């Protein structure tokens, strides 16, 4: 039998889960890939959708109390403000929403009402061009950082989308990348990159000087399998979405392991609403063991998560809100689990 | 290296796999026929497109919720594997143990079922049947989750005997009941919740939850049973142990393998090969690897009469064309079209028409399916921008002085697509078309897009021939 990976003790506390899957417009998430927070307390959720439901690509809007406030989208396609495979999202200090699209190879900017502001990028490897843009972050001064998975580099733009510089190339040496994904900034303006296929996180200054490398390939503490996202809080603690291991790791300022999370989702408000009107499912769910022992051949983190509903499955993004609560966005489970580091 | 060696190796790879390019065939001929057979039945690292890369690009293949996404995920593997027989056998088992999405509403269970087939494909048929009986998709498909100690459901027991092992006429109705009793308690984990969700096609609250086997001791009928003349307190494994010892089982599985890999129809010479395969089955304690070795190395299989004697199934056709064209080697936007194409041609992956699987052979071809077949393959092989087509053109450029007459173009294209043995009437028609296009100058420096398109047009036309549609 395959048994669940133990959740280690530590300062991370589970708060709650938000979201529920949906097949239509309105309340619910559909393959969420990122989230961001406005200054007025709205939570924006980027719904990537899947190949069969591209018409449902959108940003959904809710608040902490899980009231669904609306959504916006310009539709699927290549037109102004439209998306095909939106991957990363962030909100700048001036409340502009920036979204990367790995298929259209561009960054699109909206205001918080969903009105189109600007977009830039086209497929290529020259300055200003993009190839598979993924993670995105905006510094306090408006400088935009984008991780390009197929150009294996980080590219820096002005807030207007003018190319400033790039760093990185394909490889596994210091400062090189293999299909980077998530990207985050700390309070000092340093850049952390989830170097996805190198199973590590690299830290750089804002102009690309390498500062540190965290992690190596594996399943142990301080080891990663295809990290997808990274976040850094105000005290320098580093959170890593260990996508291939289907877990989250908390590291200290020096990259030393503190805690591993495997996930512990509960029914969100919206999920409870579903269960309340579907008693057949609710009653049989009540007698089910949602963390079952599994046959030995179902032994990979992916397969375990596919069978174990409370566990993380496809953690593609990590974001800290204004109160430094950690939002773990799960693409395969259409929900966000929320945690907070205890500061005592 | 003789043309006969190339033709024989091409035949083997069309049957044991999905076909091979000329470069691949030349490498295989160097290894020798029997060595290639040994490599096919002892697969190593498949070198397939990595799961992490697929799941990062295709959210639908990470979640594995949609029918066509699951089908395309498997086709990525068929298109990129080095172990062609491994996937061809998985396709065979999928047809034999035909399990469909419509009743399950759970694509991941079908993907996991194919993984189970792959793990046990070439091993003991006894192990295969035990694992099949534990397979969650099969349990729901044939209602074994409703087979209880105090209220048996015969569906799985009946099909295990009729469709998966012995065939009708080799057991009694009482044997079916006793067989069903032995499989009581073989069910899914959390079966009440999972079967409720399956029946409602529920994705709520947080998407599908994959299934796993669970044995409920308290729901198993441990009483004495009499099955095919044997008596004991049999459980499912005991029943399968008896089943695999039957000559009817050996004949059944060897015949089905022969018809899938060697010839749609079994003649007298084919019967002789099947008898040899049955002997291998018993000599090896039911090992499919030994059975396949006997078949592929038989004079019958290697004979010229056996070639182009089967109609390519839709999956064979699509995968073969994509492999030849060199497309879909990386995650590709819209890849689920691959699975949809085979459905349009009559073989939807994970959508068998019934528990009996697909009717193969000439039934693959009707006017609607033929149009779909010709259009898809023509599009893949009629585009000179596709890497495999470019490789064919480059190879032709090295022929003679690099300027090919219409007749030389037809001969070279037919050779590199198969080699295909064109009938005289087919060859005449295609030569007429080639003559209208004129010669092709494929020399470096003077080759134009029009020259390349002439070759691609011929390849497209050849894929519409009867000869190409056969394996």
Primary descriptors:
heterodimer, A: 344 residues, mainly beta, 4-stranded antiparallel sheet, 7% helix, 38% strand, B: 471 residues, mainly alpha, two-stranded antiparallel sheet, 3% strand, globular
Could you describe the 3D structure shown?
The complex is a heterodimer of chains A (344) and B (471). Chain A is globular. The longest helix of chain A has 8 residues. Chain A is mainly beta and 344 residues long. Chain A contains 3 helices and 26 strands. Chain A is 7% helix and 38% strand. The N terminus of chain A is likely disordered. Chain A has a 4-stranded antiparallel beta sheet. Chain B is mainly α and 471 residues long. Chain B has a domain of 156 residues. In chain B, 59% of the residues lie in helices and 3% in strands. In chain B, the strands form 3 sheets. In chain B, strands 1-2 form a two-stranded antiparallel ribbon. A two-stranded antiparallel ribbon of chain B has the order 3-4. Chain B has a two-stranded antiparallel ribbon with strand order 5-6. In chain B, strand 3 and strand 4 form a beta hairpin. The longest helix of chain B is centred in the middle third of the chain and has 16 residues.
Offer a concise description of the structure.
The complex is a heterodimer of chains A (344) and B (471). Chain A is mainly beta.
Give the strand content of chain A.
35-45%
Compute the number of helices of chain A.
Answer: 3
Please compute the radius of gyration of chain A using only Cα atoms: 19 Å
**How would you write the strand order of the largest sheet of chain A?**
1-26-25-24
Largest sheet of chain A: 4 strands, antiparallel
């Amino acid at each position: 039998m395959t048994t669940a990976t133990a959740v280690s003790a530590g300062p991370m506390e589970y708060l709650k889960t938000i979201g529920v899957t949906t097949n239509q417009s309105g309340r619910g998430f559909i393959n969420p890939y990122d989230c961001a927070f406005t200054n007025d307390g709205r939570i924006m959720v980027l719904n990537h959708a899947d190949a069969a439901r591209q018409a449902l690509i959108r940003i959904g809007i809710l608040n902490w109390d899980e009231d669904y406030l609306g959504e916006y989208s310009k539709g699927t396609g290549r037109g102004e403000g439209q998306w095909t495979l939106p991957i990363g999202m962030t909100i700048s200090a001036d409340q502009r929403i920036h979204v990367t699209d790995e298929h259209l190879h561009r960054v699109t900017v909206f205001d918080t009402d969903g009105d189109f502001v600007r977009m830039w990028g086209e497929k290529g490897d020259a300055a200003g061009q993009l190839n598979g843009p993924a993670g995105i972050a905006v510094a306090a001064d408006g400088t935009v950082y984008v991780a390009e998975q197929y150009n294996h580099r980080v590219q820096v733009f002005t807030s207007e989308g003018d190319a400033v510089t790039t760093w990185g190339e394909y490889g596994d040496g210091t400062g090189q990348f293999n299909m980077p994904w998530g990207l985050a900034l700390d309070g000092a303006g340093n850049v952390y990159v989830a170097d996805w296929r190198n199973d590590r996180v690299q830290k750089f200054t804002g102009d690309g000087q390498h500062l540190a490398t965290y992690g190596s390939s594996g399943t142990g503490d301080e080891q990663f399998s295809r990290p997808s996202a990274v976040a850094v809080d105000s005290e320098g603690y580093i959170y890593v979405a260990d996508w291939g291991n289907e877990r989250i790791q908390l590291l200290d300022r020096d990259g030393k392991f503190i805690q591993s999370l495997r996930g512990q989702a509960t029914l969100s408000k919206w999920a409870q609403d579903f269960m309340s009107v579907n008693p057949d499912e609710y009653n049989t769910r009540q007698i089910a063991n949602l963390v079952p022992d599994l046959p030995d051949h179902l032994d990979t983190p992916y397969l375990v998560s596919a069978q174990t509903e409370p566990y993380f499955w496809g953690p593609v993004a990590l974001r800290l809100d204004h109160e430094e609560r950690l939002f773990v966005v799960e693409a395969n489970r259409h929900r966000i689990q929320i945690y907070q580091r205890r500061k005592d | 290296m003789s043309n006969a060696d190339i033709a024989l190796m091409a035949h083997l790879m069309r049957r044991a796999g999905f076909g091979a390019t000329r470069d691949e065939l030349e490498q295989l001929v160097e290894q020798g026929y029997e060595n290639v057979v040994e490599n096919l039945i002892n697969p190593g690292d498949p070198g397939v497109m990595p799961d992490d890369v697929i799941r990062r690009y295709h959210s639908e293949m990470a979640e594995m919720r949609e029918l066509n996404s699951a089908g395309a995920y498997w086709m990525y593997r068929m298109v990129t594997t080095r172990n062609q027989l491994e996937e061809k056998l998985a396709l065979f088992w999928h047809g034999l143990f035909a399990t469909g999405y419509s009743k399950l509403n759970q694509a991941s269970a079908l993907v996991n079922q194919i993984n189970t087939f792959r793990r046990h494909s070439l091993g003991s048929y006894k192990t295969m049947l035990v694992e099949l009986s534990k397979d969650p998709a099969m349990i729901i498909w044939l209602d074994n989750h409703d087979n209880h100690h105090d209220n048996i459901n015969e569906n799985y027991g009946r099909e295990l005997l009729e469709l998966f092992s012995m065939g009708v006429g080799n057991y009694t109705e009482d044997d079916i009941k006793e067989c069903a009793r032995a499989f009581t308690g073989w069910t899914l984990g959390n079966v009440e919740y999972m079967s409720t969700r399956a029946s409602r096609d529920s994705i709520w609250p947080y998407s599908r939850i994959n299934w796993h086997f669970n044995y409920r001791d308290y729901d198993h009928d441990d009483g004495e049973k009499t099955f095919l003349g044997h008596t004991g307190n049999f459980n499912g494994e005991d029943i399968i142990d008896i089943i695999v010892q039957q000559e009817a089982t050996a004949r059944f599985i060897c015949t089905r393998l022969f018809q899938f890999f060697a010839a749609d129809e079994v003649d007298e010479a084919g019967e002789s090969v099947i008898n040899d395969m049955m002997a291998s089955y018993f000599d090896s304690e039911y090992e499919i690897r030994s059975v396949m070795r006997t078949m592929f190395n038989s004079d019958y299989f290697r004979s010229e009469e056996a070639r182009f004697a089967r109609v390519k199934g839709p999956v064979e056709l699509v995968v073969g064309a994509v492999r030849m064209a060199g497309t879909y080697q990386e995650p590709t936007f819209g890849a689920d079209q691959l699975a949809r194409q085979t459905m349009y041609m009559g073989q939807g992956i994970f959508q068998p028409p019934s528990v009996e699987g697909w009717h193969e052979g000439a039934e693959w071809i009707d006017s609607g399916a033929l149009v779909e077949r010709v259009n898809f393959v023509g599009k893949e092989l009629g585009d000179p921008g596709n890497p495999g087509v470019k490789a064919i053109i480059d190879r032709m450029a090295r022929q003679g002085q690099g300027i090919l007459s219409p007749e030389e173009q037809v001969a070279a294209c037919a050779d590199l697509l198969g080699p295909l043995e064109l009938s005289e009437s087919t060859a005449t028609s295609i030569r007429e078309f080639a003559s209208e296009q004129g010669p092709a100058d494929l020399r470096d420096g003077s080759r134009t897009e029009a020259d390349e398109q002439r070759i691609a047009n011929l390849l497209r036309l050849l894929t519409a021939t009867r000869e190409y549609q056969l394996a």
